[in-house]
Amino acid sequence: MQATVPEDRLSFDWTDEFHDKAERYPVDARVNHMAKPLFVCALPSDEKVKDATISLLTFEKWGIPFGVLLT
Questions:
Q1: SS3 call for 11
Q2: Is residue 2 included in any domain, yes or no?
Q3: pLDDT tens track, the chain, 71 positions
Protein backbone atom coordinates (compact mmCIF):
# COMPACT_ATOMS: atom_id res chain seq x y z
CA MET A 1 0.00 0.00 0.00
CA GLN A 2 2.85 2.39 0.78
CA ALA A 3 4.21 1.80 -2.71
CA THR A 4 1.02 3.06 -4.39
CA VAL A 5 -0.45 5.65 -1.97
CA PRO A 6 1.45 8.92 -1.46
CA GLU A 7 2.76 9.33 2.09
CA ASP A 8 0.75 12.53 2.71
CA ARG A 9 -2.51 10.64 2.03
CA LEU A 10 -1.83 7.64 4.28
CA SER A 11 -2.21 7.44 8.08
CA PHE A 12 -1.59 4.24 10.05
CA ASP A 13 -3.35 3.39 13.35
CA TRP A 14 -5.78 6.24 12.71
CA THR A 15 -8.37 7.43 15.22
CA ASP A 16 -10.85 10.30 14.94
CA GLU A 17 -9.38 13.16 17.00
CA PHE A 18 -12.73 14.95 17.35
CA HIS A 19 -15.00 12.08 18.45
CA ASP A 20 -12.50 9.62 19.93
CA LYS A 21 -10.06 11.45 22.20
CA ALA A 22 -9.49 8.21 24.18
CA GLU A 23 -8.47 6.43 20.91
CA ARG A 24 -10.77 3.46 21.52
CA TYR A 25 -11.86 3.03 17.88
CA PRO A 26 -8.78 2.72 15.65
CA VAL A 27 -8.48 1.62 12.05
CA ASP A 28 -5.27 0.09 10.72
CA ALA A 29 -4.91 2.67 7.95
CA ARG A 30 -6.77 5.66 6.52
CA VAL A 31 -6.37 6.93 2.96
CA ASN A 32 -7.52 10.56 2.83
CA HIS A 33 -7.97 13.37 0.29
CA MET A 34 -10.96 11.61 -1.29
CA ALA A 35 -14.69 12.40 -1.21
CA LYS A 36 -14.95 9.69 1.46
CA PRO A 37 -11.77 8.51 3.16
CA LEU A 38 -10.93 4.84 2.81
CA PHE A 39 -10.47 2.88 6.04
CA VAL A 40 -8.30 -0.22 5.68
CA CYS A 41 -8.75 -2.99 8.25
CA ALA A 42 -6.46 -6.01 8.42
CA LEU A 43 -8.40 -8.96 9.85
CA PRO A 44 -6.04 -11.81 10.76
CA SER A 45 -8.10 -12.99 13.75
CA ASP A 46 -11.62 -13.11 15.15
CA GLU A 47 -10.66 -10.47 17.73
CA LYS A 48 -9.56 -8.05 14.99
CA VAL A 49 -12.83 -8.69 13.15
CA LYS A 50 -14.75 -7.84 16.33
CA ASP A 51 -12.71 -4.67 16.95
CA ALA A 52 -13.04 -3.49 13.34
CA THR A 53 -16.80 -4.12 13.38
CA ILE A 54 -17.20 -2.06 16.55
CA SER A 55 -15.04 0.77 15.17
CA LEU A 56 -16.86 0.92 11.83
CA LEU A 57 -20.30 0.85 13.45
CA THR A 58 -19.22 3.63 15.79
CA PHE A 59 -17.98 5.78 12.89
CA GLU A 60 -21.30 5.20 11.15
CA LYS A 61 -23.16 6.24 14.33
CA TRP A 62 -21.07 9.43 14.50
CA GLY A 63 -21.99 10.22 10.89
CA ILE A 64 -18.44 9.96 9.55
CA PRO A 65 -18.52 9.14 5.82
CA PHE A 66 -16.07 6.43 4.76
CA GLY A 67 -15.36 3.59 2.42
CA VAL A 68 -13.81 0.41 3.76
CA LEU A 69 -11.33 -2.21 2.57
CA LEU A 70 -11.19 -5.38 4.65
CA THR A 71 -8.11 -7.57 4.16
A1: strand
A2: no
A3: 788 888 989 999 999 999 999 999 999 999 998 889 999 999 999 999 999 999 999 999 999 999 999 99
